Amino acid sequence: MSTTELGMPGAPRNGHDVPPTIGVSTGPATSVAYHTGTWRTERPVYVTLTPPCQVGCPSGEDIRGWLGAAQDGTSGYERAWRAIVENNPLPAVMGRICYHPCQTACNRVELDEAVGINAVERFLGDTALEHGWSFDPPATSTGRRVLVVGSGPAGLSAAYHLARLGHEVTIREAAAEAGGMLRYGIPAYRLPRDVLSAEIARIAALGVRIECSTKVTDLPTVQAEFDAVVLTVGAGVGHHVDIPAGAAAKILDAIDVLRDVASDHPPLLGRRVAVYGGGNTAMDAARVARRLGAQDAVIIYRRTQAQMPAHATELHDAIGEGVRVQWLSTIKQIEGPRVKIERMTLDDEGRPVPTGIFEDLDADAVLLAVGQDADLSLVTGTSDIDVRDGVVGVDLAGMTGRPGVFAAGDVSPGSRTATFAIGRGALAARSVDAWLAGATPTGPLPVDREAAASRLNTWYYSDAPHQHRRELEAARRVTGFEEVVQGLDAEHAVFEARRCMSCGSCFECDNCFGMCPDDAIIKLGPGLKYEIDLDYCKGCGICVSECPCGAIDLVSEVR
Amino acid sequence: MTAVSIPFMQTGTLVVGNRLLDDDDRSVQARADRPSSLTKGHRACQGCAEALAARWVMDTAVDATGGKLMVANATGCLEVFSTLYPESAWKPAWIHSLFANAASVATGLAAANAARGRSDIRVLAQGGDGGTVDIGMASVSGMFERNDDVLYVCYDNGGYMNTGVQRSGSTPPAARTATTPIAGRRPGAPFGQGKFMPRIAMAHEIPYVATATVADLRDLEAKVRTAMSIHGARYLHVLVPCPLGWGSASNQSIALSRAAVQSGTFPVFEARAGEITAVTKIREQVDVEEYLRPQQRFAHLFKPGGEDALARVRAAAEANIRRYGLLDDEPRRGQQQEALR
After folding, report:
1. Is the pLDDT of residue A315 over 60?
2. Is A498 close to B9, i.e. CB distance below 8 A?
3. β-sheet bridge partners, residue A155
4. Is A233 helix (H, G, I), strand (E, B) or coil?
5. Which of B91, B249, B254 sits opposite A515 (nearest CB)?
6. A6, A463, A479, B256: least CB-packed within 10 angstroms?
């Protein structure tokens, strides 16, 4: 043992080599000869668990990973963005319109508020567009040709992932421009068109051929042309309900109105507009009606606010723009500008039942937003593609009953959200890739153990309020289609990223290393984390209890 | 207090280190090449907070003095578990003589250094609560009143633990020990007895007195550093949970220290020349139950008949909060969350 190791330069040695003169002397640090690890009945083991945000993300983004990169500030943005696009090729779009189930799942709710993951994603997406970052080109080329029918989020995701896997991809889109529901269903005040177009252009730049105004009408024909086909035609047909109506009544599908507005052909709706339905399309339609000049926009919904399928923020924003909502009401009849409404009540099981009480409402137009149906024209007449509950049936891997034909997005079963569509598009791409290679597609990737909130020691996280995105004031909102929700600036985005608690993944806080009473943890250096010195670890479990992010397990010692 | 203020980095100053900080801003304990003055192989029980606190204190002192440090250790757990003949777990120059005289030995070391013109070599004395508040009280008080150039550190686990958990003058009221069993009308250690050594030290009006826990490393390191920047008699009193004597789980030593502070049971402060100059405010207030319930020595407080004693312990914590001003005027973390709901 050298004197420098003792931290005492110049001090005399006092080990066994120096004979004691008074009393009894022992050498310094000679206790290392005794291995206290033999006392141990349990041992700490470093683990990496899946955080709830990632479990909750239908696109399967490594959110903890890219937030971690963004925490480094400017030097980490591109790394963070590249981590996002491993799964989701549309960060600037999704950073605006995603209903962020990741934030609903976020463990930080237990402490103060969920991390604003969505806002940081948007910041990174916008930063990427600003800098013109492009996707890494595919490493290989397989020479196989794949057709993606439809260019909504599922189609764009499938095409992007197929292209990155080296396939030659063509998208055929019936509409004049690519984007599907992103372009024709989501109003510009939520998703500016230049942002959408720029992210689609980046996918095209990867080599994906996008043919617009090209409706695919026959499956066998395109199957002869391509090695595999992915159906992502969406659900863009307004669902219909039977309402007795006079000839003078102006009844429109809300989804058609949104499409017409997006195509720069806004319809004349009048001063008083009623919207029938309680989903997000109903909210969008009512907000669009206000922007088209309606003084009064009323949402009529048969259940209560708690049962409404629309996202709470959408309702909040609609109300903020002067939209009225009439709960527990159904439309019984439409006669000219007069709408007959029946009040409903909830029965014991929470279902709405008629009360026999009627009232009238004046409306120049009634917009139906009671659901959307998939466009199944391409599969009707095929014997091997199963249509169930109005959508195309697929197996776990996203393949239909017809070999080589896959489906994803709203045309297939599952949640009708853009993030789910992106996740299923990626799954279809992986499955196509496996199928083309002659392998059996495996389906969704298994989820590892989740880092539950109960594993965390939240004491160690600083108090840090959620950074809110600024919003356009209500008066300016209803006069045009300017984007309502503003982005975070760099400073706030980094702050928000640093609110991530890194659940289930060591972020090298040194708690285990510093708090081990037995000096039995070895720090391996930046990025290399730690190692337990099992010769000395007594298994007290302090490192496990004091790990902020729950990244250490205590397991029974088997001798 | 001289604790470093660090900009918000996910975990701020609460964790031992932080990957986003420069090495210079990190605690001594975060350094891969820290001195580890009390090293591996010592025989302390699993989860011993005294072993942990001793390494923290001494590593900081070694760092502050450039390794020019001599340590006198009183008899007690710390001495027994660290120096089983023929081994020693210590790296600095370390001496043990008797139970009662660590402070006197330290006085002698300081005097010898001064006589040799080596005032650059600093002296630290340490012991448990038994060696400090009971058996060594006279020599500690003597060292204080002479204002000898020694930092005396007391690791307070509230009893004579390695000899079988007997009561000391620092055992808290109601606690069960081998000599204050759960029997009779007033089970556990008696109320109205015992002493709080930091206030005795303050009464000597020595230059520096501070308390600390293993629940706040940066605070502890800052206090040792402050103490080593001052000459004369200094006293640091560290609360160290003892899984054996307290009947607590070995993984709870830090959590119990935290609960002791956040409930007001153990005040964390600094005093100079007999006056309190800084107080660590409660960040997230908890009831004394959070501190007491995980400890078997207080189990009887939560059984029928224990209500009065529990109320008295709670009242003592509330008195601490008043006396030391432990609650901030501004709403802290817990109240903030309440307001958000």
Report:
1. yes
2. yes
3. none
4. coil
5. B254
6. A479
Query: Three-state SS for B307?
Result: helix
Query: Cβ separation of A510 and B37 shorter than 8 Å?
Result: no
| B126 vs B76: CA distance, rounded Å | 10
Phi, psi of A330 (to 5 degrees): -125, 155
pLDDT tens per residue across span A144-199? 999 999 999 999 999 999 999 999 999 999 999 999 999 999 999 999 999 999 99
* DSSP E strands, B232-336: 234-239, 269-272, 275-279
Q: Could you tell me if residue A398 is left (phi over 0), alpha (psi between -120 and 50 degrees) or otherwise beta? A: left
Cβ atoms within 10 A of the Cβ of A173, count? 25
Inter-chain CB pairs, A–B, below 8 Å? 194
Determine whether the interchain pair B15/A460 forms a contact, defined as Cβ–Cβ distance below 8 Å: yes
Mutation target for A interface from B5, B8, B11, B337: give the one with most A CBs within 10 A: B11
CB B5 within 8 A of CB A495: no
Cβ–Cβ below 8 Å for B87 and A5: no
Shortest CB distance from B250 goes to which of A24, A460, A541?
A: A541
> Which B-chain residues 28-67 have CB contacts (< 8 A) with chain A?
29-30, 32, 35-44, 46-49, 51-52, 55, 62-63, 66-67
Which residue from B minimizes the CA distance to A111?
A: B337
| Nearest Cα to Cα of residue B209 among B258, B151, B155, B267 | B151
Q: Does B101 touch chain A (CB under 8 A)?
A: no
| Residue reference for tokens 């285990």 | A512
Please tell me whether the peptide bond between B35 and the residue prior to it is cis, using omega within 30 degrees of 0. no
CB contacts of A524 in chain B (<8 Å) are: 32
Mutation target to probe the A interface, by most A beta carbons within 10 A, among B13, B40, B118, B341 is: B40
User: What tens digit of pLDDT does each residue of A32-55 get?
Assistant: 999 999 999 999 999 999 999 999
Packing angle, helices B49-65 and B217-228, rounded to 10:
40
- Nearest residue in chain A measured CA to CA from B11: A461
The alpha carbon torsion through B15, B17, B21, B23 (nearest 10 deg) reads: 160
What is the pLDDT, as a whole number, of residue A22?
64
Mean pLDDT, chain A, as a whole number?
92
Strand pairing category for B208-213 and B151-156: unpaired
CB contact under 8 A, A546 and B254: yes
* Chain B touched by A30 (CB under 8 Å): yes
Instruction: Answer yes or no: are the C-beta atoms of A277 and A255 closer than 8 Å.
Output: no
Question: What whole-number distance in Å separates Cα of residue A365 and Cα of residue A361?
Answer: 11
Q: Which two tokens stand for residue B278?
A: 């800084």
A545 touches chain B (CB under 8 A): yes
Least confident range of A103-112, A501-510, B216-225, B330-339: B330-339
Give the nearest chain B residue to A72 (CA atoms).
B20
Helix (H/G/I), strand (E/B), else coil: A330:
strand
The answer to whether A432 and A406 have CB atoms below 8 angstroms apart is yes
C-alpha span between A416 and A344 (Å, rounded):
27
Collect contacts of B99-102 with beta carbons under 8 A, ≥24 apart: B99/B74, B99/B75, B99/B130, B99/B131, B99/B135, B99/B136, B100/B74, B100/B131, B100/B135, B100/B136, B100/B138, B100/B139, B101/B74, B101/B136, B101/B139, B102/B72, B102/B73, B102/B74, B102/B126, B102/B127, B102/B131, B102/B136, B102/B139, B102/B152
**Whole-angstrom Cα distance, residue B36 to residue B27?**
13
> Distance between CA atoms of A146 and A144, rounded to whole angstroms?
7
* The two structure tokens encoding residue A110: 């237990």
- Give the residue from A13, A31, A74 with the most B CB atoms within 10 Å of its CB, the best one to mutate: A31
**CA dist list (Å): A412 to A81, A217, A401, A420:** 29, 18, 13, 11
Buried b or exposed e, range A233-264, using 16+ CB within 10 angstroms: bbbbbbeeeebebeeebbbbbbbbbbbebbee
